[in-house]
């Protein structure tokens, strides 16, 4: 299949624009979505598009959204429910706009290149900005974690989520333009920029996953052809080993992020009453405490089958924090706790508490269906990597509760489903990947 008409090219370019804009401020994403909608309308052929929409990979997203919409009617806080529903419109809009279009291998590569370009420009901007601030005030913390991306809407964790996928693409996708073998110097310069940016963002889980992925990929290539890949893998091992040694034996914020795990006091999380105890909230014990409160609410309020409603979750969480005596939830405290209105930081628990087991089943299907369907795709490495990273990342973040996660994850999820269905129906040659 070849997308040659100007309407098809306009549609693909609109998809490229969204991919490029993902790491930029959120309002640009909204503008790019409207441009995509216009390109979709101009493309026409609506009868065929309706037929393409009736696929499990798309319908499960729409049902997931419908359950959130239904929870409006039993949520007491209608205002918050409306805000949440509006933020999740992408669950329906992208299956309609992206899922019903046509994306061939050439278009898929253009979209990937656009995404890498967008993340690379953001990386370059953030690093230059950090150097500017460092020269101004001498504070090296400007180069790390949330401070590095403080000028943007997405925080360091979500920016790492984008960057790790861009790095995966370099390793796992065989590009036929821009990042080709003939342009090795350019390709690896961009890869190095993204890798430095990714490390500076200091997301513990994703750094671990990327190192693990590199190790598994190296082992695979080594078994495939030891003579051909031994030298390259040895060089990679030396580079990674040197970097890890520097991180391990020097004082730096990245090392401190991992040491927090060893120093964490998890006993504090399970106290029955915090009102008469010194309570120090940090990045490590906050999540378990939030999860504990969510689980207690689910059990005590019997939220298993329909949840509390998407509008009331913050209210019942805040109420439970108040009951536990956590500082910052009483007016007389004189300050507001950072836990006030905070997301659950676990998309599985977040879904269960908001819309119950039916919603959790939908989320699990969204994440699990690709592993059954993608067997029809010959080279499926990059698809598996995207899904596996998303599954693990959702254990520590409420990815589908923020625009930083919604647009990115839904966009690529629907993009892959589109390519899969097109390939299966038209028996198109699978996209080439190295794994």
By helix and strand content, what is the structural category?
mainly alpha
Proportion of β residues?
under 5%
The best one-word shape is: globular
* Number of beta strands: 0
Keywords: Membrane, Transmembrane, Transmembrane helix
Transmembrane segments: 12-41, 53-75, 111-134, 154-173, 230-250, 355-374, 405-422
Membrane topology: Multi-pass membrane protein
Subcellular location: Membrane
Protein architecture, described:
There is one protein chain. The protein is mainly alpha-helical and 435 residues long. The protein is built from 18 helices and no strands. The chain has helices at 6-21, 26-43, 46-53, 56-70, 78-87, 90-97, 105-137, 145-148, 156-172, 184-201, 204-224, 226-249, 253-263, 286-300, 313-324, 347-373, 381-393, 403-426. Helix 1 packs parallel to helix 7 (105-137) and helix 9 (156-172) packs antiparallel against helix 17 (381-393). The longest helix has 33 residues, at 105-137. The model is unreliable at 428-435 (pLDDT under 50).
Jot down its keywords:
18 helices, single chain, WaaL-like, membrane, transmembrane helix, mainly alpha, 0% strand, disordered C terminus, 435 residues, globular
Brief description of this entry?
With 435 residues, this protein is mainly alpha-helical. Helices cover 68% and strands 0% of the residues.
